[in-house]
Amino acid sequence: RFDSGVLLDDIKVTTGTNMQFLSSPLAGITVKNLPINAIFDHNNIADDSTEPFQPNGVAVAYTGEKGQGSVSGTAPCLPNSNKTNNVPQNFQINGHYLAAGNPKNLLCYDGHDGIDFEAKGNVYADAEGIATLNWEVNSYHTIIITHPNGYRSMYLHMNTSPLKNVQGENVGTFTVKKGDLLGTAGGFGPGCFDVVQKIYVGCNTAFPVHLHLGVLNPQGQRVDPYGWTGSGQDPMSQSVKNINLWLD
Question: What is the CA radius of gyration of the chain?
Fold first, then answer.
């Protein structure tokens, strides 16, 4: 529980209309040009950060674009509900949507709790904060940056990182500034780990090398840094407020 003072501060941080503080995590690519492989699903977000996301046959992007279909497997890509002559139209999203190597009339992924960016180069801190990592116990090579305003950025599927303790291990906490090098992106997860080279690699065309960026608000709720720009009400629970967090 929060005491009344912290809760008031958190509400102010979470629901403010001028909270842009994140910059592009990819080298030489502005926010508006970030290549999105998979969207943050606004239709399947739990109120509490401890509840797992589950595919439910409908996925909605921050733009209001919707994919709908049968649930098969984990985190499926769903065809566009907007059709011409019964053929699903391509998704636009930010104009740089890649569908994780799938046809662009599929929305990836149903139940996805972050944003996947195609990341073939270096990855940088999106804002200042304290970076925490422990790759010895985390099979997804995750770096978590806790920002001064209470938000947290989570970088999953990292490959290499210069953030190391005195023993040369990717373990510990480190102060980072916006634009500091965090390392390089890797693959999807445990199934994409090269045990010989001890690095993550792209699994296949459906899971190209990418960065999964997740954002938590001060209450620990998963939020979309793009906010909500669709027409009508955000389908997420109204206990979670999505606002644009990007600076540029």
Answer: 18
Size of the chain in residues: 248
* Mean per-residue pLDDT, 6-24: 58
Which one-letter DSSP state was computed for residue 43?
Answer: T
The whole-angstrom separation of Cα 163 and Cα 147 is: 17
Q: What distance separates the 2 farthest-apart alpha carbons in the chain?
A: 62
How far from each other are the two terminal CA atoms of the chain, in whole angstroms? 34
Three-state DSSP class for residue 160: coil
| Structure-token pair, residue 29 | 């690519």
* 236: DSSP letter: S
For residue 206, the model assigns a pLDDT of: 41
Query: In this structure, what token pair is assigned to residue 241?
Result: 């407020």
Cβ proximity of 133 and 170 under 8 Å:
yes
178 and 205 in contact (C-beta within 8 Å)?
Answer: no
Check residues 12 and 217 and name the one with the higher pLDDT. Answer: 217
Give the model's pLDDT for residue 23.
Answer: 98
**SS3 assignment, position 102:** coil
**Model pTM score:** 0.85
> What whole-number distance in Å separates Cα of residue 63 and Cα of residue 9?
29
Confidence of residue 137 (pLDDT cuts 50, 70, 90): low
Kindly state the tokens that stand for 19.
């909270």
DSSP category for residue 186? B
